[in-house]
Design a protein that fits this description.
568 residues, alpha/beta, ABC transporter transmembrane region fold, Rossmann fold, six-stranded mixed β-sheet, 64% helix
């Protein structure tokens, strides 16, 4: 129970809202349950001659009206207060995710992250809007009336309570096994969600390679695992609930035995027995529901724990104020990077200096660490050793908005959104005119194919640009970067998916764009970088050569070898 309370407290604390309607609703739901049982106590008082018929009638009518009012306004305020609380919680959660290091988000499976941010949040919302009020009433009302009954006859009250500790012990004793089974079930669900997203996204490729059936077999095996894990949850949860309910029901048996013993001894009045006989089942009925609520809450608590694990990931450190840049040059000082969960270093002892107006090309064999240089500049990760400066300021001393305003990015994995071509192009510059957008597209040779689309620049591109070819998506991403007109342009295999004609147009545009700007590009095709001012050759995370095209060919080292391989 302490874990549940702690989880609820964390949600309320993160939401950072008072939610007075929620607490009002919870209070009214408690009063509703009290009003449902109070008539029995009022009747008991009347039968003892302590109240008139008029007083009894007015009291019963008042309790009925109060119960209806508390029920209506209690549920209304619980719902509205719970939704307001969860709106604030969602906002804080998404704000946290938005400030996570981009490298961390790249490592998350889309399906699993989506499951956390949708289904897990929905489960917690259900907790505040439905479960908490019912559980609170199920626990608080019996406790309250047990205290009242204690003053009527403490012996019968203790008899009624006799088996309840055993019932709660049985419920709590199986908690560990139930939680373990629930964790296995949720893990299976998360794995299935990730596999399903990958299957749908890669269905075309799987069919072309005749691997769809094999992938479906993996999904079937995962669904079978979900079935087995779900049965495990039901076995442990159902067994615990049945034992608990048996213990609660046994309290009525003990009550009957105690009443019979007291009546035989002449120590039990008819009115006292009548009161206990009528009230005891109504006091115990909410307790029978407690087991179901607790089982549900434990599952919900695991959802909160998964979200808390996401919230526990440190956000990207940012200064409170923007720094003053002394230029647009980029410097790497003895930079080393090792990715999480990796043993080998991606970069080791990298020293670089890129001046404004220079075009720096980074080349090397696959896995040499070329893209890692750009990942560091984009602050997907921070280096474990050394530092990177922009305009004489450490990147970690820059606010992210300042860094991203100064840079445009074009990576291998093009990300487009389910919107029009125009909306995707304006992503980095929302106020750009249509003429400016069209000019940027003409620079990279994509204006013609856009005009051939059904609605031109207003044509929806589909989810992640699925209605466009790979080369078309790449050219749109380049045009988007050019339109942003940032002083630093970072390109990662920017021309890898375009035809030679478009590649020539893009190279001409990049040459003009480089004037007065810092241009850093990672390339596999060496012909696209031979006009670069400086070419850096990486191998196994280290810089092994640097210079212009002619100098590197004359050195007859790794660059010259790669050039000959591609030329042949």
């Amino acid at each position: 129970m302490s874990g549940l309370i702690e989880g609820l407290y964390r949600v309320v604390r993160l939401a950072d809202t008072r939610s007075p309607r929620l607490w009002l609703g919870l209070g009214l739901r408690l009063l509703e349950r009290v009003c449902a049982i109070a008539p029995f106590l009022l009747g008991f008082v009347w039968l003892q001659g302590d109240a008139s018929v008029l007083g009894l009638s007015l009291g019963l009518c008042g309790l009925l009206v109060a119960q209806l009012a508390c029920s209506h306004y209690g549920q209304l305020n619980c719902f509205l207060g719970g939704y307001a609380l969860m709106q604030a919680y969602r906002r804080q959660l998404l704000d946290h995710v938005a400030r996570l290091p981009l490298g961390v988000l790249r490592e998350e499976r889309i399906g699993q992250l989506g499951e956390r941010l949708t289904e897990d949040v929905k489960r917690i919302e259900n907790l505040f809007t439905h479960v908490v009020a019912e559980l609170l009433a199920a626990l608080a009302v019996p406790l309250l009336f047990m205290l009242v009954l204690m003053f009527v006859d403490w012996r019968l009250t203790l008899a009624l309570l006799a088996t309840l500790p055993l019932a709660f012990s049985a419920l709590n004793g199986m908690r560990r096994f139930f939680l373990a089974a629930a964790r296995r079930k949720q893990h299976s669900f998360m794995q299935a969600a990730g596999l399903l997203v990958e299957f749908i996204a890669g269905l075309r490729t799987l069919r072309l390679f005749n691997r769809a059936a094999a992938w479906q077999a993996r999904l079937d095996a995962q669904f079978s695992q979900i079935e087995r894990d779900s049965l495990g949850v039901e076995v442990w949860g159902g067994s615990a609930i049945q034992l608990y309910r048996l213990g609660v029901d046994a309290s009525l048996v003990v009550l009957l035995i105690a009443a019979g013993w007291l009546a035989n001894a002449g120590q039990l009045s008819v009115l006292t027995w009548l009161l206990f006989a009528l009230v005891a089942p109504r006091v115990l009925d909410p307790l029978l529901d407690v087991a179901a609520y607790l089982s549900e809450l434990r599952g919900l608590a695991q959802a909160q724990a998964r979200l808390q694990a996401l919230l526990d990931i440190p956000v990207m450190d940012e200064p409170l104020k923007s720094a003053v840049l002394s230029g647009r040059g980029v410097r790497f000082f003895d930079v080393s990077l090792r990715y999480p969960q990796q043993q080998d270093w991606a970069l080791r002892g990298v020293d670089l200096s890129i001046e404004p107006g220079q075009m720096l090309a980074i080349v090397g064999p696959s896995g040499a660490g070329k893209s890692s240089v750009l990942h560091l500049l984009a602050r997907f990760y921070d280096p474990q050793h050394g530092r990177i400066e922009l305009g004489g300021v450490d990147l970690r001393a820059l606010r992210l908005e300042q860094l991203y305003d100064a840079c445009s990015f074009v990576f291998q994995d093009v990300q487009l959104f389910d919107a029009s071509v125009l909306d995707n192009l304006r992503l980095g510059r929302p106020d750009a005119t249509l003429a400016q957008v069209m000019y940027a597209c003409q620079q990279v040779g994509c204006h013609e194919f856009i005009q051939r689309l059904p609605q031109g620049y207003e044509t929806p591109v589909g989810e992640n640009g699925q209605r466009l070819s790979g080369g078309e998506r790449q050219r749109l991403s380049i045009a988007r970067a050019l339109l942003k007109d940032a002083p630093i342009l970072l390109l990662d295999e920017a021309t890898a998916s375009v035809d030679p004609s478009a590649q020539y147009e893009i190279q001409r545009a990049l040459s003009r764009l480089a004037e007065g700007r810092t241009l850093i590009m990672v390339a596999h095709r060496l012909r696209t970088v031979r006009h670069a001012d400086v070419i850096v050759v990486l191998d196994q995370g280290r810089i092994v050569e640097r210079g212009d095209h002619a100098t590197l060919l004359a050195q007859d080292g790794l660059y010259a070898e790669l050039w000959r391989q591609q030329a042949g």
